[in-house]
Every structure is written in structure tokens, then in C-alpha cells.
Amino acid sequence: MLEIVFLGTGAGIPTKQRNHAAIWLSYTKDISSVMLWDCGEGTQRQIFTARLNFMRINDIFITHWHADHWAGLIGLIQTMNLEKRRHPLFIYAPEAERFVSDILDLGYWGPGFKVIPKDVPAEGDKITKLIETKYYEIYSTPVRHSVPAVAYCFKEKDTWKVDIKEAEKKFGLKQGPLVGKLKSKGEVELKGKKIRLEDVGRLHKGIKVVYSGDTRYCETLVNLAKDADVLIHDATFLEEEDTKMHSAPEDALRAAKKANAKQLVLTHFSRRYQSLKEFEDKAKKLFPNTITAKDFMRIQLKSKE
Questions:
Q1: Cα angle, residue 66 at apex, residues 84 and 125 outer, rounded to 5°
Q2: How far apart (Å, rounded) are the C-alpha atoms in residues 77 and 43?
């Protein structure tokens, strides 16, 4: 299962209701897989309020270096140090080495654990694989903003489930080591007959979640979000003429439709909007499975088995 916790859903200047951008993701198949997408000012207090354990975070993915998306790193790293963290913290971002180095130079002493920057490509139109584990992969792609910026994708690996009854009926294949080999190799031979995985198995598509960060509509994001279970998209302003290098609901809806996303979550709202009802009304007319994110909102996605 993947749990998504929205720790901050505001843009630019925080409000009492909406903190700066930060999204917590935890993946239960791998106990070490806790990450943040962005880390705006006040993120550690939001983590405490949500009763989450900040020491479990291993990877932080910054979409771009505007302060409402990264300023929380300073306090979070300091607190981790005071709590005697010893295992490394990885920070992925465009120009990560440059900016993380500057952050670590802000005090008299550095942290007692390694903070390892990982540069993420922010130019062009390619999708880059950043992490691969036994269970999932993390990808990025450049998006369209006023500074170098990227979007991120969590993609659980697809899995095959062998129908043992069907396999035994068709080929005499019974549960055992040969089934494991079939899953890993894609085909096996039994009594002179070649058995392919697709002959006796069903493919279960893994969970896919994409986060745009700050962006105008762009095809790179659409490509990254293809067939996503959830697309989390910038919707800073209600009207398109106000968007500048951000998005309005229409931009997010257009991206979700073209990507064939199953659910759209709008976030990163300007403080000028005290109510999000107009966002919801406008969005649901065009893409019914749309919700507006609120601080501490949780979404749980179960692996398809």
C-alpha cells in the first residue's frame, strides 16, 4: 500500500489553513521507503501534527528552488541532527549539489550524518529513472516553470500472478520452483513444452502517482503521468490569465485527460482564495474524479493483487 499525506497545499505565502508545499509518501511493502515530495517552510511541524515519524524519511525530492518548496529543509535537517540521526539523507533536485551545499553552510557545524545531493535533469523532454528498488521506481521529467523545475513519479513495479489451476490443466505445471523461474524469466520448458508467462498468468499493474510541482501545462508532464492512478497537479490560480508560470484547473484537467489519469488532485493554491469551492465546481464539470487537496488529507492506494 502507498499512503500519501498532504502536509502543505498552499502557494507562495502560507495561510492558517494551508502550509507550504510538502507531500509525504510511505510504501508499506518496504519499511524503509518513506519520502517527501518538496519540503516547504514549516514542514517538520506539519509532520509532528500528522503524527508521522520524520526520522524515517530517507529521500527528499525537491521540484525546484523557490523557497515555498524547499525552506523547510533547514529546520528538518537540524532536527534530525539533534535527534542523533546517523543514516544518510538523500536530496534529489535540479542543481542539488549547488543548493544543498549552500544549505549545509548556513550554520557553524554541519549535521552528524551524510546529506547526499542528487542532481536531477531539468532540461529537455526525457524521463529519467532516479531510483529502482525491488518493489518500485522513481522517475522525473522537466516541466515548464520560471526556474529549472521537474515533476516526479512513484511507480510500483508490475507483478504477474500465475493461475496454477490453469497452468496445471494446460501444461501440467504445479506449484514449485519452476513457477518462480517462470515469473523471473518469462518462460520455462516442461516435458518438451515451452510455457510463457502470458499463457498462464495475469499482469497486475503497479500503483502510479505523479506530482507536477509548479508548472504550466506541458507535454513532458503528460508523458510522465500516462495512465497514472493519481496525478497531483499545480492549480495555483482559478483563472488562466493569472497563471503566469503556474496552472489553473483547466490546465490540470487537460493534462489529466490527455494522460488518461484515473484521479486528479489539485493543490498549491494561492492565498487569495479562502474557499476552494469554485475550483471544485470548475474541475468536476470537466473531470469528475477531481478533488482539491487540503492540509493533512490522506490518500491510500492498495497494490493490485
A1: 105
A2: 11
Q: What are the boundaries of each domain within the chain?
A: 2-158+205-301, 160-201
**Strands 159-162 and 150-156, bridge-based pairing:** unpaired
State the pTM of this model: 0.89
CATH class of 2-158+205-301: alpha beta
Q: What is the DSSP letter of 30?
A: S
Cβ-based neighbour number of residue 53 at 10 Å? 10
Residues assigned a catalytic role: 68
**Which ranges constitute the DSSP H helices of the chain?**
43-49, 67-70, 72-82, 96-104, 164-171, 177-185, 197-200, 219-224, 249-259, 277-286
Closest by Cα among 234, 228, 199 to 299: 228
Q: Write out pLDDT tens, residues 52-96.
A: 999 999 999 999 999 999 999 999 999 999 999 999 999 999 999
